Amino acid sequence: MKNISKDNIRLEDILDTAPIAVAWSSVTSGRIEHINKAFSALFGYVLQDLPDLNTWFSDAFSDASYYQQVVEPWIQNNQARQQDSVSMDGISARMLRNDGTIRKINLCVSTLGEKRLWYFNDITEHWIAERRLRARSKMLEMVAKSSALKDILNVIVTQIQQESPLSLCSVLLFDPVEQCLRLGAAPDFPDFYNQAIDGVKIGLNVGSCGTAAYLNKRVIVEDIATHPYWQDYTQLAAEAGLAACWSDPIVSSKGDLLGTFAIYKRLPSSPTQKEIELIDFASNLASIAIESYRAQEALQKRAYYDHLTGLANRGYFFQHCDALLKQSRVEGFPLAIIMMDVDHFKVVNDKYGHKIGDFVLQKLAQVSVSVLKHTDVIARIGGEEFAILLPFTDNNSALKSAEQLREVIASSVVLSSNHEQVRFTVSLGVAFRQNGECTVDEILNKADKALYQAKAAGRNCVFSMGLMT
Ligand SMILES: Nc1nc2c(ncn2[C@@H]2O[C@H](COP(=O)(O)OP(=O)(O)OP(=O)(O)O)[C@@H](O)[C@H]2O)c(=O)[nH]1
């Protein structure tokens, strides 16, 4: 430490003890003549690194248009002011440190003779806290308004990317049925990377996210190129320009896995304490968003789906049928309806009990879904009564679908509590949208009449308004 005698105190020494970053420049040449210790700590430079003031400023302000439109006029205005002005209005701006990270500063200037003193007050922490609060409020508002989950997650990802420049962030959603991760939000990743990741099964050595989800704990990979967790994905990561990945499992309030939040870096690196806090913040926000979305989804499911079979319920079917009938009238595509009813179901219940009867309904739903097209909608509209809507389906195709349903159901088996094979059949009635007007009630009535004909004809058969197949 320098030994400063009492009567030999220089301005430089005084400024070095100041907690605020200060630089002074020559009024005439603009050369930066001194920076204090707090300046070096804030921006990472020593005096020799810095060119003249204007050159440094034009590089240091991270937002070029803000620099040109706001900062430059402010500097010029101050330079035009008379000398020995001691106090001036400050300006807020984002400035780059020598490591590329961004600091938010309040900049003030005063002129003293030939020297111009610049004061850089670091308000980054306050700025980050404020922005996080804003991001959090915006996200909660979006949750309350039931915005699309992808949009909400994009707000979180964007916030973190702004706080941690030179990073890419992603949220992947856990699919518990398929035990895989699906794309939630990864707005700045290349499409080929997102496509490759979407649907990846979780497991050990499935990158940072697949492994974090599998182990249900944070995974920090500092160098993707050499880490065993990435051994099957190093080329993919290299093509996307990714060198490090820190991934956190997103967990619900009950401890269930909801997905992963990850920060990727372009160069091998380990997270700072601040970046760990950032990951925690993002995972917590994402957890609120995903959990509330899932709760809403479950509510909707309860409103529209039949709890026993998992098929759509009567309400959903009628709504959907009405909309599709209108659309088919406008666009002129063919549409058919099948009504399907279990034969002698009372006998099944009486002989094997209600529980086995329930298994029969579940099995019937399962095999029906397996033979229908993904555009068809099957619903349980009564106890043992089902309706199927077949858009873009003409007369012959609908009859074929009905026959296929009949066959696959007739060959299905459920085991009774005594391990007896319980077999069951269905009767089916088919109706089509004719040219001209046709309401939901009209087409369902037609299908119902055909169903009664099938029952009357001895069951386990398909009828289409008097035509038996
Ligand atoms: N296990 C079970 N049975 C149900 C459910 N909903 C309705 N049922 C039963 O379904 C049976 C319907 O009987 P019916 O209307 O006489 O018809 P069916 O015995 O199938 O005879 P047909 O339709 O004429 O071939 C009744 O025994 C109801 O109790 C359910 O959710 N689970």
* Helix/strand class: alpha+beta
Q: What is the name of the CATH topology of the largest domain?
A: Beta-Lactamase
Number of strand elements:
20
Tell me the name of the CATH class of the largest domain.
Answer: Alpha Beta
| Domain count | 3
How are the strands ordered across the major sheet?
12-14-15-13-18-19-20
Radius of gyration: 34 Å
Pfam families: GAF_2 (PF13185), GGDEF (PF00990), PAS_8 (PF13188)
Domain GGDEF: 333-467
GO molecular function: diguanylate cyclase activity
Organism: Marinomonas hwangdonensis
Task: Characterise the protein shown here.
The protein has 15 helices and 20 strands. The chain is α+β, with helices and mostly antiparallel strands and 469 residues long. It folds into three domains: 11-122, Beta-Lactamase; 127-298, GAF domain (Beta-Lactamase, 2-Layer Sandwich), CATH 3.30.450.40; 312-468, 2-Layer Sandwich (Alpha-Beta Plaits). The longest helix has 32 residues, at 273-304. Helix 5 packs antiparallel against helix 6 and helix 12 (345-352) crosses helix 13. The protein has helices at residues 11-16, 37-43, 53-60, 64-80, 124-144, 149-163, 191-197, 207-215, 234-239, 273-304, 314-331, 345-352, 354-371, 395-410, 440-456; strands spanning 21-26, 32-35, 91-96, 102-112, 115-122, 167-175, 180-185, 200-201, 219-221, 244-251, 257-265, 312-313, 335-342, 377-380, 385-391, 414-415, 421-422, 426-432, 462-464, 467-468. It is elongated and about 115 Å long. The protein is 44% helix and 23% strand. Residues 308, 341-346, 349, 354, 357-358, 361, 383-384, 455, 459 line the site of guanosine-5'-triphosphate.
